[in-house]
Sequence to fold (340 residues):
Amino acid sequence: MTALRGEADRAALSTMLWGFFPAQVVRTLAALGVPDALGERPQGTPGLAGRIGADPGALGRLLRAAAGLGLLDHDPAGAWSLTATGELLRTGVPGAVGNLAQLFCGDPVWRSWGMLEWSVRTGRTAFEEVTGRSAFEHMAADPAMLAVFTEAMAEGTRAAAPGAVASCDLDGVDTLVDVGGGNGTLLAAFLAARPGLRGVLFDTPSGVLGASDVLDPARAEVVVGDMFDSVPRGDAHVVKSVVHDWSDERSVALLTRVREAMPAHGRLFLVEPVLAEDREGWAGQFGMLMSDLNMLVAVGGRERTLAEFGALLDAAGLRLTDVVRFPPPTGYSALRAVPA
Ligand SMILES: C[S@@+](CC[C@H](N)C(=O)[O-])C[C@H]1O[C@@H](n2cnc3c(N)ncnc32)[C@H](O)[C@@H]1O
Fold:
C-alpha cells in the first residue's frame, strides 16, 4: 500500500516537474508559426521546414512530440495536420491561446520564472532583474513582445468578455470608461451588447496598439495617458486584469484616480479572479495560484482575496457593494463598487 502510494506521489510530482517541457513544445510550435502553416493545409516535414525556416531533422522531432501531446495528427503519407486541440494555437481562431503561450513561455517571462527562487527570497520582481526595467517599460520598447502581449491579452479577454457583459450591470450608463483597456477588446464587447452606449478606452500610448482596428470611432474614443496621474470621467468604469499587476500601494493610487473620475452616481466594475481564503478553495484555483506567482516574478503584483480587494477599495474611497461571479469557463468576478 505504502509503495503504491509512493509511486502515485512520484508520478504526480513528475507531471509537475516535467510541466515545462510540454509548455516549451507548445510555445515553440506557436513561435515557429507551425499551427498557422498546418491550418492552411496538412504538409510533410521537409516542406514545412522550408516554409517556416527550421532544421528538418529537429523540426520532425518537435512535431513528433507535439503529436504525442495530442496537438498534431500524422497520416501514413507523412503529412502533419492539427487536431482540435492544436487548432487553438492558430492565430485568431475562437479560443486561441497561441499568443498567451508565446508570452508566458517565451523570453523574458520564461527567464523570470527561472528566477522564482530569487523572487521568493527577496520579494522582488525577477523581470526587472532580467531586463533592467519594468514589464510595461520593456514592452513599450520591444515591438515584437508588445504585439504578442497585446494579442495575448485580447485572447484571454475574448474568452472572458461574454461573462463580463453578463455580469456588469450597465443600466442607465451612457459612458463606460475601460481603464487599462488594452486594444479595446472588452470595450468592443460591451458596445456590441448595448447599442446606445458610448465608450472611452484609456491606456498608455503603447497599450492601445491596434485599438483602431477593434473599436468603431463613432462609438468609442481612445485616450492615452497614465492612470496614476488621472483617468477620464464617465458614469461607469471597468478595470479588468489591471489591479493584479500592482502592489497594494500602487493599486490604491490607481483606484483613487478612478474614484476621482467618478460622479456621485458612478459605479466601478473591478474585473479580476478572486482568490479563495483556504486550501479547499485553492484546490480549484490552479490557474489563479500560478497567475499569482506570475505576478510576483513578472510585474510585482498579486492575485487577491475578496477581503484584500475590499481593503484596497476602502482605502481609495470606494465601497464594495456586490460581487458577481462570471459563469464558467472563466474564473473572473465583477466586483462592483460605488463612491463611499
Ligand atoms: C494585464 S493588461 C490588461 C489589459 C485589458 N484590461 C485586458 O484585460 O485584456 C494591463 C493593462 O494595463 C495597462 N497599463 C499599464 N500601466 C498603465 C498606466 N500607467 N496607465 C494606463 N494603463 C496602464 C497596460 O498597457 C495593459 O494594457
The pocket of S-adenosylmethionine is lined by residues 136, 153, 157, 180-182, 186, 203-204, 207, 226-228, 240-242, 245 (CB under 6 Å). The domain at 2-90 is CATH 1.10.10.10 (Arc Repressor Mutant, subunit A). The CA atoms of residues 10 and 180 lie 43 Å apart. The longest helix spans residues 143-167.
